[in-house]
Amino acid sequence: MALDFVLEHQLFSEIWILSDSRSVIQYLVNWRDVSDQRGMDIFNKLRTLCNTCVLRIQWIPSHANLKYNDIADNLVNEGTTMPQAHVEPLTCLELYSRRKAPVNISWRHPPAHSWYRC
């Protein structure tokens, strides 16, 4: 939606896309391997923006008490509770990443059993 807004209004000469998701940045870096329709739509919009302005994409650390990252996280949380007019089915990659996230978190926190520490 943000890309559509920028394309429609053409208000900017330089655009920064900041993400605290390394997988999103990797997805954008490996754009030649993208084959799903949603990804191709995003890349076509980014290509159009690159023709009219300077586009910068940067990863930022999450949960590092960065003011605007916290604001963006709060807006995302509010947005997920709002009703959506049109919801596309999730791609295989999206389903995989949703399942992988809690598994990764569980591996970062070892069990608290006393025998485990020995």
Automatic annotation (TrEMBL):
Organism, as annotated: Araneus ventricosus
Alphabetical list of InterPro entries matching this protein: RNaseH-like_sf, RNaseH_domain, RNaseH_sf
Coiled coil feature spans: none
SUPFAM superfamilies: Ribonuclease H-like (SSF53098)
Every RNase H type-1 domain range: 1-81
The protein's name in its UniProt record: RNase H type-1 domain-containing protein
Gene Ontology terms for molecular function: nucleic acid binding; RNA-DNA hybrid ribonuclease activity
One Pfam short name: RNase_H
